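Final report, section 2: Outcomes. Of the targets proposed, Heparanase-like protein 1 is the one most frequently requested by collaborating groups, and we therefore present its record in full.
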Amino acid sequence: MGSTVLAVTQESNPNFRVYAHCAKKKPGISIIFINLSKDSSFNVTLSNYEHQSRNLRSTDVAKPNFEFRGSKDREEYHLAALAGNIQGQIVLLNDVPMVPTETFDIPVMEPKLVNASTHISIVAHSIVYVTFGLNALLERNRSQIEKGLWVGDWKSQNARDFMKYTISKGYKVDSYEFGNQLSGAGMGASVEAKQYEKDIVVLKNLVKELHPDPKTQPKVLGPSGYYDEKWFNSFLEVSGHDVVDGATHHIYNLGPGDDPNMITKIQDPSYLNQVAQTYKGVLNIVNKFKPQSGAWVSKSGGALHGGAKDLSPTFADGFWYLDQLGMASTYNHKVFCSALLWHRLMGSTVLAVTQESNPNLRVYAHCAKKKPGISTIFINLSKDSSFNVTLSNYEHQSRNSRSTDVAKPEFRGSKDREEYPLAVLAGNIQGQIVLLNDVPMVPTETFDIPTMEPKLFNASTPISIAAHSIVYVTIRDFQAPACA
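The predicted structure is given below as tokens.
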């Protein structure tokens, strides 16, 4: 884009943004098209209005006398998101991933040459669900008595203006979350429960006023903070029944990211068990006051302040993360994100499961996402011990899996079970290369997710869980009544 800006208009759709400059390398012009729509694609033609200071109008396709018809191929640079994920970090240029070279140089960026007589095609992006966090401290004042406490009524005008803007642009908003980490003692700032519940009622009424159709009405979520029993009780007692669509809370149970003992915490079953009290407490309060959508974990990073540099992007983080997914589902929590294999294999129905042989072996079981059968995840926190596991089905005792019940009637299947064993390269749990069935899980040459196929095992053999490994197991002929 050169320094000379050209006047340009398009009147077909507000989601379609267009800017034009004289080309940096003459002759010609350079244009950028930005498509904000997740649903709509556009075919564009250009028209030149020299004397009206109008250069481009996509609405002028029906005016052939004014339509620009070039004789030279145009140069196009199409930028898109890998796998349609606009929140991903891999950008495609003309369908090729933009990644550094082996010497970490910027890759060559060549245009695609397109016949000048054709339309310019601008594709839509993928479907996303948008939750906006609203500033719940707006127009409040700091307490003169209590440090960190903010007092006074929340002013909703800014939120009203913002919602009107999203409506005018046709943007679809899934939900509004009220504030961030203001519950209990808060994180640098707090609001008393009685005041917060009063203000979230104002927000709910505002959402109903501006979105009267219940089918398209955004949800209202809160309090989006750390669990404090007294505070949550007070808040949900008033707002739980018909105001809050989801009781959201945050989990950062590993503490500050710079803690040198974090690698020890993440392998300590007794430490990981501590957060169960939070899940249980939130679930009990939610069941008591019945918000429509139950309990949600709206933010969870394990480690505070941006994560742990040498831990968060490694295999070891899976010990914490997958254990949290299992624990969250056990206590009937929704989460905003999920691991890929978990998403593919684990259904939404949670099964009661126990194992009493060793606290380092974590086990969670669900009905299989693709029926029939069950899917189970085993997480081995021990660096020294391996386990051989057999399953027993106790239908009438709500007990589905017990590795200590080898001497009792065991489950003996007739179909091969499907196993996805995850381990680390060279035994380094702080490494970033994960092995699935001993094969490194790395992107393909086109940066797609590699194929993830299970290994089939004879149903009569025990399930082997190696030290410091994670294993998903799907058993198609395990008869769990809840999965029928």
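The longest strand covers residues 361-368.
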